[in-house]
UniProtKB/TrEMBL annotation:
Residues 6-243 form the ABC transporter domain. GO terms for molecular function: ATP binding. It comes from Paracoccus pacificus. Keywords: ATP-binding, Nucleotide-binding, Transport. Belongs to the ABC transporter superfamily. Gene3D superfamilies: P-loop containing nucleotide triphosphate hydrolases. Pfam families: ABC_tran. This is ABC transporter ATP-binding protein. Transmembrane segments: none annotated. The keyword Transport applies.
Length: 255
């Protein structure tokens, strides 16, 4: 019996055709237990977001297998899978439609999924992300960056998914609000038993959020570490040591 909630096996993802075809994710293997949080970290362009997009169903063109609760995830997704797997993007300014009131931002996924008790669900999810129900009547330009990201998180969670994909969820935010949003995400995971797959180039963020971290280089997962191993520089690969030392010497105790 596979105790993984999400499992990627020999995941390969390429773009382009013929001679211009480039493989950007190479033989990636990882799994996440239910309720756990898994981070992908590495330099820009190493393939982190490409993995996330394949899991989200936004990039059906992959080889290898992805399974959810032991069942293969089909390359073409149906509605029930979009309900189970939701994504929060990096930039809440770009991901919220400027002319859509918060109420309608949150109503849309409920309508698409055909869920009942819509007003109650909207009030509940606003409260869960720390906003009172008057926010239903605001437009994105009337919100701060942190409030927008709270709405983006509410939009993802209003359909009660099991797996949340987080693509640099705080890197577009002021440092002062980053920690608030990360703490909110940690609390929501605990309270709702959510499973997270998260991408970040920020080691401090990943160490704060994840139970297990995969270091990527040129499309490959080089090694997987716990946050403690990360903090203490207990790594196997020279590349990881260099990456950690260059990225966050103040967070990691690397000699
Ligand atoms: N749709 C696409 N078509 C062609 N190439 C793509 C496509 N999407 C991504 N790539 C390429 O795949 C590689 C990996 O990109 P990806 O966005 O996954 O990297 P990343 O590690 O998430 O980087 P970043 O931290 O900058 O977001 C890059 O070289 C990128 O140019």
């Amino acid at each position: 019996m596979d105790n993984a909630y999400l499992r990627a096996t020999s995941l390969n993802i390429a773009f382009g055709h013929g001679r211009s075809r480039v493989t950007v994710v190479k033989d990636a293997d990882f799994h996440i237990a239910k309720g756990h949080s898994f981070g992908l970290i590495g330099e820009s362009g190493c393939g982190k977001s490409t993995i996330l997009r394949a899991v989200a169903g936004l990039n059906p063109d992959y080889e290898g297998s992805l399974t959810l609760n032991g069942a293969a995830l089909p390359h073409k997704r149906d509605k029930s899978l979009y309900r189970k797997i939701q994504m929060v993007f990096q930039d809440p300014y770009a991901s919220l439609h400027p002319r859509k009131m918060v109420q309608n931002v949150l109503l849309e996924p409920l309508e698409i999924m055909g869920l009942d008790r819509r007003q109650a669900r909207i009030d509940d999810i606003l409260a869960a992300v720390g906003l009172d129900s008057s926010f239903r009547f605001r437009y994105p330009h009337e919100l701060s960056g942190g409030q927008r990201q709270r709405i983006a998180i509410a939009r993802a969670l209003v359909v009660e998914p099991e797996l949340l994909l987080l693509d640099e969820p705080t890197s577009a935010l002021d440092v002062s609000v980053q920690a608030e949003i990360l703490n909110l995400l940690n609390r929501l995971r605990r309270e709702r038993g959510l499973t997270y797959l998260m991408v970040s180039h920020d080691i401090a963020v990943i160490a704060h959020m994840c139970d297990q971290v995969a270091i990527m280089k040129d499309g490959r997962i080089l090694e997987q570490l716990t946050p403690d191993q990360l903090r203490h520089g207990a790594v196997e690969e020279d590349y990881t040591r260099q990456f950690l030392a260059a990225s966050a010497p103040e967070v990691m105790r690397i000699d």
